[in-house]
Amino acid sequence: MLTFVGLGLYDERSVTVRGRDAVRGADRVFAEFYTSRLAGATVADLEDAHGVDIEVRDRAGVERDPGPILDAASDGDAVFLTGGDPMVSTTHADLRLRAHERGVETQVIHGTTASTAAASLTGLQNYRFGKATTLPFESSHGGEGVPDSVLATIGDNRERGLHTLVYLDIDRDKGHDPGGRGAGTGEHGDRYMTGDHAAGLLADAGLSGAGVVVGRAGSDDPTVRADRLDALAGGDFGPPLHLLVVPGELHPLEREALAAFGGLPDGVGEGG
C-alpha cells in the first residue's frame, strides 16, 4: 500500500488525524519538500511528533528514481508526505500512476491547501477565483520583471471578474544570496519571495488596483493585508510563507470582509 498524506499548511500539527494515524502506522515514510515546504516545522519536528524516521527525496529521487518508494509500498505499508494536499502537484499524480501500473494499492489522505486558506482568511468567495499562477524570481525565469504568462492570467481573470491566487517563488538553497531583495529565508537556506516584493513586481509591470498579502496561512498568527499593489510594495508582512491575491470584481460582502480582516482602505479596488 502507498498512502499519500497531505501535511497541511504550516507545521507538524497541521496534518489531519487520519493522516497522523497513517504516518504512525507505516513501515516506511518518505517525503518531498521541493513542491512545498512547511514554514513552521523541520523534518526533525515531524519525526519527533510522529515517532518515525522520514526519508526525504529530492525531485530526481521522486520523478526519475521512484523505485525505493514503490518497492517499499509493494513489500508493506509506505507513506509519502507532501505539504498541502498531495495531489495538487502533477509529480505526485505520476507517482500514483506508477504504483498503479505495478499493482500497488494506493490511497490519498487530503490536507488543507493554500487556495482554500486564501479564500477563508481574506473573506473572498472561493468560487470566484479563476486560474492561479506562480510569480518567479527574475533569476528563476532568466528575464526581467514579470513573465507575460503571469500578467495574462491576471488580466484574463480580471476581465471575467475573477480573483487570482498568485503563488510566490521558492528559490532552493539561495537564502544566503545577498542580492535577494524581497526574500525571506528558511530551513536549508531557501529563499522565499515575500508579499511586498511580489506586489512591487506587479505594480512595476503596470498593474494597478488592489492586492491582498496573506502570510503564514495555517499558523496561529496569520497576516492578511489589503491595499493598492504599490502600497503593499512598501509593507512588512513578517516571516514566510506569503501568498498574494489580486482581486477581480468585489462583491459587497467581499469588500466588507477585506476591510474588516485586511484593512482595505475606502475606495481601493473599486471597479475591480
Topology:
Blueprint: E1 2-6, H1 17-24, E2 28-31, H2 43-50, E3 54-56, H3 59-63, H4 67-75, E4 78-82, H5 90-101, E5 106-109, H6 114-122, E6 133-135, H7 138-141, H8 148-159, E7 164-168, E8 170-171, E9 183-185, E10 191-193, H9 195-204, E11 210-215, E12 223-228, H10 229-232, E13 242-246, H11 252-262
Parallel strand pairs: 1-4, 1-5, 2-3, 2-4, 6-7
Antiparallel strand pairs: 7-13, 8-10, 9-10, 11-12, 11-13
Any key phrases for this structure?
alpha/beta; Methyltransferase, Cobalt-precorrin-4 Transmethylase, Domain 2; five-stranded parallel sheet; Cobalt-precorrin-4 Transmethylase, domain 1; elongated; 272 residues; single chain; five-stranded mixed sheet
Distance between the termini: 48 Å
Whole-number tally of structural domains: 2
The best one-word shape is elongated
pLDDT average, as an integer?
A: 91
Write up this protein.
By secondary structure, the chain is α/β, with parallel strands linked by helices. The chain has 2 domains: 108 residues, Tetrapyrrole methylase, N-terminal domain (Cobalt-precorrin-4 Transmethylase, domain 1); 149 residues, Tetrapyrrole methylase, C-terminal domain (Methyltransferase, Cobalt-precorrin-4 Transmethylase, Domain 2), CATH 3.30.950.10. Helix content is 34%, strand content 20%. It is built from 11 helices and 13 strands. The strands form 3 sheets. The chain has a 5-stranded parallel β-sheet, sandwiched between helices. β2, α2 and β3 form a beta-alpha-beta unit. The protein is elongated, with a radius of gyration of 19 Å. 45% of the residues are buried.
